[in-house]
Specification:
One of its GO terms (molecular function) is gap junction channel activity. This protein is mainly alpha-helical. The protein contains six helices and three strands. 67% of the residues lie in helices and 5% in strands. Strand 2 and strand 3 form a beta hairpin. Helix 2 packs antiparallel against helix 4 and helix 4 runs antiparallel to helix 5. The chain is elongated.
C-alpha cells in the first residue's frame, strides 16, 4: 500500500493546527506511520507462514491460527492509522469550503463585496466545532483500538507457545508463533505512542475549550 498521501494530508492540516496539534502530527508521522512502513510490515510478514503446530493433521494449523489471530495485527494497525488521520481531512475540507465561499462572494458582489472570513483557517464558529470534534474522534478511535488489541493480545504480548484443541486437530496441540518477542516489542511501542497521542488530543481539546 502506498502511504504517500498520508504525508500530504498531515502536512496540509499542519498549518491549521495548534502547537499541540503539530506535536501530534509529528508523532503520528514519524513514530507511527514511518515505523509501520519501515519495520512493522516486515516483522508481521511471516505471521501465518511460520505459525507451526506439532501435528500434520490437515487444516489444524489454519484453524488454530485463525482462532488466535482473528484479525491480522498489521492490518488492524493500518486500519487504526487510517481512521485516526482521516478526521484531519475534515478540517482541510472545512477551510477549503470557507475559501471557496469567499471566492464566490467576491465574484458575485464585486465592489460591494464584504469579507466574511478574513482568515479562513482561524478556528471560530463551525471550524472550531469541526476541529474539536476531530480531536475527540481521534482520541476515541485510539482508545477503542487499544481495547481491541488488549482483547486480541492479552497484556499486549504474544506468547511463545499456544495450545489449541479445535477441530480438526486430533488432540491438544502446541503451536509456535514466529518471533513473538520482536512482535511484542513492536506492539508495546505502538501502545505507548498511541497513549501519548490520546493525551495530546485531550490536552489540545482542553486548550481549545479553555481558550474559547
Amino acid at each position: 500500500m502506498n502511504w504517500g498521501w498520508f504525508k500530504e494530508l498531515l502536512s496540509g492540516v499542519n498549518k491549521y493546527s495548534t502547537a499541540f496539534g503539530r506535536i501530534w502530527l509529528s508523532l503520528v508521522f514519524i513514530f507511527r506511520v514511518l515505523v509501520y512502513l519501515v519495520a512493522a510490515e516486515r516483522v508481521w510478514s511471516d505471521d501465518h507462514k511460520d505459525f507451526d503446530c506439532n501435528t500434520r493433521q490437515p487444516g489444524c494449523t489454519n484453524v488454530c491460527f485463525d482462532h488466535f489471530f482473528p484479525v491480522s495485527h498489521i492490518r488492524l494497525w493500518a486500519l487504526q492509522l487510517i481512521l485516526v488521520t482521516c478526521p484531519s481531512l475534515l478540517v482541510i475540507m472545512h477551510v477549503a469550503y470557507r475559501e471557496a465561499k469567499e471566492q464566490r462572494l467576491r465574484e458575485t458582489e464585486g465592489d460591494n463585496y464584504r469579507c466574511i472570513y478574513p482568515n479562513p483557517g482561524k478556528k471560530r464558529g463551525g471550524l472550531w466545532w469541526t476541529y474539536l470534534l476531530s480531536l475527540i474522534f481521534k482520541a476515541s478511535v485510539d482508545m477503542v483500538f487499544l481495547y481491541i488489541f488488549f482483547r486480541f493480545y492479552r497484556n499486549y504480548s504474544l506468547p511463545r507457545v499456544v495450545k489449541c484443541e479445535l477441530p480438526p486437530c486430533p488432540n491438544v496441540v502446541d503451536c509456535f508463533i514466529s518471533r513473538p518477542t520482536e512482535k511484542t516489542i513492536f506492539t508495546l511501542f505502538m501502545v505507548v505512542t498511541t497513549c501519548i497521542c490520546v493525551v495530546l488530543n485531550l490536552v489540545e481539546a482542553t486548550y481549545l475549550i479553555g481558550k474559547r
